[in-house]
Amino acid sequence: MNTDRPGGFLDNRKASACIHCGLCLASCPTYLETGNENLSPRGRIYLMRAMDKGAVPVTEASASAIDTCLGCRACEAACPSGVRYGELLEETREHINRSVPRGWMETLLTKVFIEGILPHPERMEIALTPARWIKAAAMDRFLPAGLREPLAFVDPHRPAQESLPPFSQTARDPSRGTVALVVGCVMDVMFRETHRSTIRLLQRAGFDVVVPEAQGCCGALFAHGGNMAEARRCAAHNLGSFNAPDLKAVVINAAGCGSTLKEYGQLLSNDPRWAPSAMAFSAKARDLSEMIEPECIDWLPPRFGRVTYQDACHLAHAQRITEAPRRLVRHVARGGYVEMSESDVCCGSAGSYNLTQPEMAGRLRRRKIGHILESRADIVVTSNPGCLLQMKAGLESAKNRATQVMHIADFLAAHLPA
Amino acid sequence: MKLGMHRATQDESALLADLRLILGSPQILSDPLELLVYECDAYTLEKKIPSIVVLPNSPFEVAEIVRCCNKHQAPFIPRGAGTNLSGAILPIENAVVISLTRMNQVQQVDLENRRALVEAGCVNIWITNAVRSAGLLYAPDPSSQTACTIGGNVATNSGGPHTLKYGVTTNHVLGLEMVLPDGEIVWLGTTLEGGEETGGLDLRGAVIGSEGMFGIVTRVVVNLSQIPQSWRTLLGVFASVDDASQAVSDIIASGIVPAALEMMDQLITQAVEAAYHFGFPLDAGALLIVELDGLEEGLEQQAMEVERLCKANRATEVRRARTDKERADLWKCRKRAFGAIGRLSPNFLTQDGVVPRSKLPEIMRFIQHTSAEFGLRIPNVFHAGDGNIHPLILYDESNPDEVKRAVQAGNRILERCLELGGSVSGEHGIGVEKADFMEKQFSQPDLDAMRSLRRMFDPLHRCNPHKMFPNGKRCMDFAPRRQISV
Prior knowledge:
The complex is a heterodimer. By secondary structure, chain A is of the alpha/beta class. Chain A has helices at residues 12-15, 29-34, 41-53, 60-67, 74-78, 85-99, 104-117, 121-136, 145-151, 186-190, 192-204, 220-224, 228-241, 255-262, 264-267, 275-284, 288-291, 313-316, 323-333, 353-356, 358-375, 385-397, 408-413, and strands at 167-168, 178-182, 208-210, 249-252, 285-287, 307-309, 379-382, 404-407. In chain A, strand 7, helix 22 (385-397) and strand 8 (404-407) form a beta-alpha-beta unit. The longest helix of chain A is centred in the last third of the chain and has 18 residues, at 358-375. Chain A is globular and about 60 Å long. The termini of chain A are far apart. Chain B is an alpha+beta fold. Helices cover 33% and strands 17% of the residues of chain B. In chain B, strands 5-6-10-8-9 form a 5-stranded antiparallel sheet. Chain B has a 5-stranded antiparallel sheet with strand order 15-12-14-13-17. A 4-stranded mixed sheet of chain B has the order 1-2-4-3. In chain B, a hairpin with a 4-residue loop joins strand 5 (106-110) and strand 6. Chain B is globular, with a radius of gyration of 23 Å. The chains are: A alpha/beta, B alpha+beta. The interface between A and B is large, with 39 and 46 residues.
């Protein structure tokens, strides 16, 4: 870390890029909800700097404004000054983790569930089993609300667990090249069908698709929580798994992971062993929507009703990709596409945020569901599993069964000939 | 606390207890930690931590808060998004900051009469977002419009690039609801249901631009305008600021009224290009953005005339935005230019002087001279069509000598604006920053008249005290003693 003051933990050059203009405010979901500037990017950077200088002690109370940050990075897209807020946040969280002892419940949640289970597909499989039983037996209604809510994310039926083919050839001749699919951790357990859709779309677009076996968690869950050492370890592991030089691209269908993959170069920049290959890897990382053109979906069945698109924060703000997925969705939805208001505002899922900050996550979820219902969309399409689950759970608790939420890969693949 | 911040006095504790009777706990901030970010707005040269920040949900709560402050003789200050550039909301005297950011809705839209009723904390661009599908917009477009609030726009009578043709806030605000400094709620000007004009004195007009000293604006009825049928956006590339300034003068003299006429000099162009990669020529001495809009009929002739006038002033190139996206990108660059300064310097001080348009070349030369004299870089991006300059004086607040020089350079430029027959502020307001200049611009009787108008609204000087008028109490000299956040 580049620190130039005793006790300082922020990269001073990055921190002083904020000139306090306030243009970020209206982009921040927690500020929109509360009107409290402490819960805005400008307020949080002010606090980070004060902590960094030692003017404010780092305690549980002072950390709470940082804890409630979604890390959605909408402020980065709004910032005219180019402040790299996401990096400042990670540096600050890492420092807070070192300095502030947390309660046992929080430690259990972070260390055991978020960091110990989620990134490990085999452990997650085990953890999900009792949850599925409860859901399948419809016993969840007897649970207290605090336990019932997270269960809303669980599909009672174990999805078909047929593993993904290690290699899928395109029908196009000649092929446009070989791409590798990143299957991720949570995604691979809960959304393997979405991976199949992704592979079919990539084949349709003319790519051969490989699924490297040795890959692991991208590290996003760790990085967002400030556990940078573990995030770097994940990154280094994946660099080894995706090192075939002839890969045209490394493709991901989860926005949260995608932004981390694209930032491997930055994450490992101080590690001379890995820095060059990390840069090369990040240069190849692509979101699915960057790989396929609307024209390759040329078989259109009867049209859908109204369709809208919810930006995944880490696609729209961290990767600045907003047009490509809309172009695809609009193409398939034809005249049925509607834009909902605040489509670029976080739904409250934000990785593990809905677990660590349930109160604010719930408020943002209600806000989002309000906009979805107002748009009268029949289908909401999005680009990240967390957002999808959050909106599904929100619609369920609003007793809305008519509106469907779909991952963009599944939405698009539904329009490919079988 | 390590902060050594203000600790609640007995009076404050009593005030706090009374506020707790009115507001819920998330609506009151009184922990020194939570007050920190409220110590300044986008003008960071002076800072002062408020005693309490409150976040009301309704005009009634605002009125209750104001009455409560009166009971405890505490000064109070309205605050929106805090994007102000002149320290107009600096909480001098341990003031209570009344933040209107939770009152942020477009409450009603009347498409037939082209009006909307919005709360003070509503972000400027949200009004346009709410009515765009009906082909309408809210015309005043300050560069901070994606964050700044309509209440703040009323307080400073905000302008923006397109106010050259369409007028400033006062031309688009029909009426407003305000909590007077004694806690009474009044409505000034047209109501949503009322006719276009009201009889009697135009108190609405008096309030707009009063920088929050006359009361706390809680709701506003704004006028909505039609989105122009067509537009032409031109980018003139000039070798020198002198040539570009002359072109501005010539365009206005020709009788054409552009919707916007903006200039960027070389230094700001380089910063903006680094930030947004628009494709600006980096070797140009100055760029002019000229936008013409209205009915398609006749627009092309105007555009050709503007092109001719630019070339007559040695423009090396005149480009045109060919698509809506190109136009939007160009405006994004212009409107976010201030922010791009973060790439050049950790701090900047912007001035907001006005000169007669014909004096633009002269003031721009003077700014260059001042920059050399004080050894500070001063990029410029401004509303050339209005003669409203925005020199951005770059400094680093961790260097006290540089801070001092920045302030001196700014003062020198403003003095020159006055000498040239201009004014010290076009749109940012006076705040604390330019209060001492009021004496130079206005005679004593003029200032007395302004003060007595202010006394009519706020006899006890409780509402946003020590702003705009000279000799107000300042919280510190221009070398801040404590900088929490460097």
